Amino acid sequence: MSAPQREKWNSSLGFILAAAGSAIGLGNIWRFPYITGKNGGGSFVLLYLGIVLLVGLPIMYLELALGRSTGKGPVGAIASVAPKSLWKFLGYLAVITGIGILSFYGVVAGWTVYYFFKSFISGFTPGQSGNVFGSFVTSGSKQIIFMGIFMGLTTGVVVMGVKGGIEKLSTVLMPVLLVLMLGLIIYAMTLPKAMSGLKFYLVPTSAGFTKTTFIYALGQAFFSLSLGMGAMLTYGSYLQKKENILRAGLIVVIFDTAIALMAGFIIFPVLGGAPAAAGPGLVFVVITDLFSVLPGGRIIAMAFFAMLAIAALTSTISLLEVAASYLIDEHKMKRPAAALTVGAITFCVGIPSALSLGASKFLSNIGSFAGRSWGFLDIFDYVFGNLSLAIGGMLLVVFVLWKWKLQHAEEEIFANSKAGPWVKYVLRPLTIFVAPAAVALVIGFLLFTGKTLS
Ligand code: TRP
Question: Domains in the chain, ordered, with CATH?
């Protein structure tokens, strides 16, 4: 009995833009500059680049290879390599992690839509950005509505399918994202404090650089490249056999990293140095406040939040697609029903996160641990956005090496590639030793310090 032909990406470029769209998100534009600011600027950037190549790239290859070889998402891929084994829980972990991340990521993604419309309708009053942000995030109804709008958009794209939805949208929006970013960079360079900002961003110093900086760079690389929960695996399962994974994976990694670096070229010239406020405040309060006093600031703010919203949407669709494809492949659901089911579940799971920024006292401060108070969103970020990605990534490497065998992964990665044998000999020790050791470090850090990586 032959299974019906699986839907495939139309073109190499379509795959690259979709996978880069998954990778490029709030992680690049909001989180990367903020983590860079907190960890020493230029030195962090250098370290990050090294980790992306030595740890991120090999794991990216394993996910794409396992996905394409089996033609399945995480649950199906594991079942085809190791049927009826306990490894199947790794597949379920991936599906659950996707829903877990999407549930809180969707809340922040909703902010980008609100801020876009607010820039359009009224603009921002200088000095008021902190108050605007405060009253917005503590309004339960607004948080739920904008999160719902974003989930709705995400679900709509996934309903339309791999080619007709995800690939088409990414092919249109990724170039728009690039143009918006380039425009914003040029604008940022004309600002009076641009040079001092760039100096902080680009000149390596030892300030803010500690032992944990290494861990932060690793966590950031994982999240930014969408690794550890089968998103790249699932996108790999829609890759045609004739595509060259070695090349496509490298382009996606370079693209993602370039966009993160470019985001720094917007944020730091605008700030003029190290960010004073950390976390959500950086983009939604500090940057908004600066835009409100700059010439043409309202248009610039619209462009900036449109850019964030686009980046977020091409990421949320990849998070939803993992669970949707699970229902389609393993439970024989029709795509629209599967996408709507996952969208509805994620919306419900997201409600407590939406209410945990002040709307509900209880959800905003569930308890104190490791020297800070934790709201519902913080807990979900810790469990799904940090810990289970690292555990998932680690187990995936073990699964590939032990069950699937490196040789099969290499055949898939190097198929259609003309790379010399030395590439294999460089990649192999990274895959076997460096990547798992690095990820094990992250898991240890998360479990023993109780700190998050954001
Ligand atoms: N990489 C995206 C970002 O940088 C977020 C994301 C999308 C993600 N899919 C993922 C993170 C899968 C981890 C796993 O914003």
Answer: 12-449 (1.10.4160.10)
